[in-house]
Amino acid sequence: MTAPVPFLDLKAQQARIAADLRPRLEAVLAHCQFILGPEVAELETKLAAFCGAAHCVTVSSGTDALQIALMAEGIGRGDAVFLPAFTYTATAEVPLLLGATPVFVDVDPRTFQIDPAQLAARVAEVRLAGRLRPRAVIGVDLFGQPADWPALRAIAAAQGLFTLDDCAQSFGASAHGARLGRAADATATSFFPSKPLGAYGDGGALFTESAGRAALYRSLRTHGEGTTRYEVLRTGMNGRLDTLQAAVLLSKLAVFEAELAARERIAAVYDARLAQAVTVPARVADSTSAWAIYAILLPDAAARDRLQAGLREAGVPTAIYYPRPLHAQPAYAAAHDGAALPVAENLATRILALPIHPDLTEADVDRICAAVCANA
Ligand SMILES: *Cc1c(COP(=O)(O)O)cnc(C)c1O
After folding, report:
1. What are the chain's domains?
2. What does the alpha-carbon distance between residue 162 and residue 136 come to, in Å, rounded to a whole number?
3. Is the pTM of this model over 0.85?
4. Neighbour-count burial of 44, counting CB atoms closer than 10 A to its CB (0-12 exposed, 13-18 middle, 19+ buried)
């Protein structure tokens, strides 16, 4: 039996970029400006240019990016923050940390993205109940594809909500001809090692078109500092990106477009070869995906679990994103108002993620497709 296919292969990627990466790391070790060194500013300029955003502020993680964005709006107790029930835990954790209340919204059964019609209904419910002030919507671009930002923005504009794009899985994707980064009032992304653009540790970034917001983000990531280091204007946090991580990201950004293209080529092969056996992911119209995750659907939990076991036998690792919607998590159940979220609950039982990364070989992809078709 040959070795299992790697679900993610950071060693192969490192070998590809080594010639650029090593001198960049050596340069940081030589100048020793480990906090806010020159690589951080260079990365912020390049990331902003990459996605066409006016401002980029790097931070210590995707979670801290979300938190800083909500802190800058003064969101807290009594505020309702609308977000999809089917996403990573950090999206809901952040409003709770600030004393606000997450209001879970159901998702589209085909694209897995937050459903704008459900969002409008949930905002109306919260207004009617009168206990919370609707303040913000966090749209997540799930698995690499964009949420329906034009629809979300229209609802937010009508309701006076701040829009925050949780782009942790989708940096590099585009919608309606433009890269994600300015689809919402602020965009937060993550450089966790397994994300499409990943560092060698934690990291994240915020993007905005507003100079005022960008200045607030810079202040908040350094303890709320003012124009001098020892002037504290507001309660902030220690939320900066390390210079060494910025150096890693500069190396990875240089090959990022090629990696996105490689992920897209693999997704196209999966679409073509697996559609006969399983439900392949629906493409969001007029967009491209960063393909953080390629998720298929099986008819039910038994079929999903059978396929997962069969693939494991065949040396094909898989993952379940997400086995539980957030409103059903023990930590968040108490914050949930009890609304039914049937699509998120159903997806959790049927979804399965296949390996997708730029270092998968043609032979790997072939083996994965054959194993899915034989076991589905
Ligand atoms: C990974 C992720 C985050 C959190 O990013 P970290 O850098 O790990 O803090 C937030 N939201 C979503 C949707 C994510 O996938």
Report:
1. 10-254 (3.40.640.10), 256-375 (3.90.1150.10)
2. 4
3. yes
4. buried
